[in-house]
Write a structure and sequence with these properties.
Blueprint (H helix, E strand, L loop, with lengths): L9 H16 L2 H11 L2 H12 L1 H19 L2 H22 L14 H12 L2 H30 L5 H29 L5 H20 L5 H15 L3 H12 L4 H30 L3 H19 L10
Length: 314
């Protein structure tokens, strides 16, 4: 992130952003495995959701802080500040984490056993279905956070600062959503992640449909619609992480999360590109929002095919 402040052309920016993504991609497997080890199944959905609030919290801070800094100071300074905050967070994680709380887990040392464990993961039908459904959810999530500022500016005639403020509010909705969906899954659905994921994608379908119909909404109503959009389209993530850890078990959680996120992040990569292509091809956002409805239909079908009965908390 700091080196991004020194970039002089688009290719350099892409390279540094790619390297940043390598670091970002390493965060989820160990943190998810940590929750699997430290927290009982009864509270795991909430704990995983709280852990995952870090992403929308960071995005909300960035959306509210970095654009004004870039406008009134410089974009270079905004990148440097972001990089320094990442360094501080990494140091704090090392200082504050208490390894004594971890339960010891034995791992195979024979290469054949290790390969067999990998086969258990990528041949697990439920893990693959969950990963594919999550990739579709990632399409919506990244399309939302990437284009919401442009949508508010181009369609609703918002200025950049106001649109950035709305993006922060969308991410605050995601923060609250991750906690809410985790509690709902643990307390009201007896640990079922599948039911909650199906409920979430149904809500995303409805909000995408509302945006596609392009009603003339007052700002308060539009804020509520976008808040619920963030509440669901960003809030689903914690339940997904708890689910993937439970499908694989504590011992293989790190590998399972790594494989699953590699599949899910295909949605992160393709979401903004495909959404933007639809906007360019149609000359507006309506069909693009409708396309997200179709994406959520696919996610609902995939989640519905997952076998979960053995995971439910009695």
């Amino acid at each position: 992130m700091v080196l991004l402040s020194l970039t002089g052309n688009y290719l350099e920016a892409v390279i540094f952003a790619f390297i940043t993504g390598l670091g970002y991609g390493m965060v989820n497997p160990p943190t998810t495995k940590g929750i699997m080890i430290l927290v009982s199944p009864k509270n795991r959905g909430l704990a995983m959701s709280v852990k995952q609030t870090g992403v929308p919290i960071g995005t909300a801070i960035a959306a509210g802080l970095l654009p004004p800094l870039a406008i009134y100071l410089s974009w270079n300074f905004a990148f440097i500040l972001a990089g320094m905050l990442i360094i501080v967070s990494g140091l704090l994680s090392q200082i504050l984490f208490n390894k004594d709380l971890e339960k010891p887990i034995s791992f195979p040392t024979h290469p054949d056993d290790s390969n067999f464990n990998w086969k258990q993961i990528y041949k697990n039908r439920d893990i693959i279905l969950l990963s594919m459904g999550s990739a579709l959810c990632c399409v919506v999530q990244t399309a939302l956070v990437t284009y919401i500022i442009l949508y508010l500016r181009d369609v609703k005639a918002f200025d950049l600062i106001t649109a950035s403020f709305y993006l922060s509010l969308v991410n605050i909705g995601g923060i609250l959503g991750r906690v809410f969906w985790g509690i709902l899954s643990d307390r009201f659905f007896k640990g079922s992640r599948k039911i909650v994921l199906k409920l979430i994608v149904s809500i995303i379908f409805g909000i995408s449909l509302i945006l596609g119909l392009n009603f003339s909404l007052p700002k308060v109503a539009l804020f509520f619609v976008l808040f619920i959009f963030g509440f669901s389209a960003i809030g689903w993530n914690g339940v997904y992480h708890a689910f993937i850890g439970e499908l694989s078990g504590e011992r293989l959680a790190g590998r399972a999360v790594g494989l699953s996120i590699a599949i899910a992040f295909l949605g992160n990569l393709s979401g903004p590109i495909l959404f933007g292509k639809v906007i360019d091809a149609t000359g507006g956002y309506n069909i693009a929002w409708y396309s997200l409805c179709l994406v959520m239909v696919g996610a609902f079908i995939l989640f519905d095919r997952i076998r979960e009965k053995r995971l439910l908390i009695q």
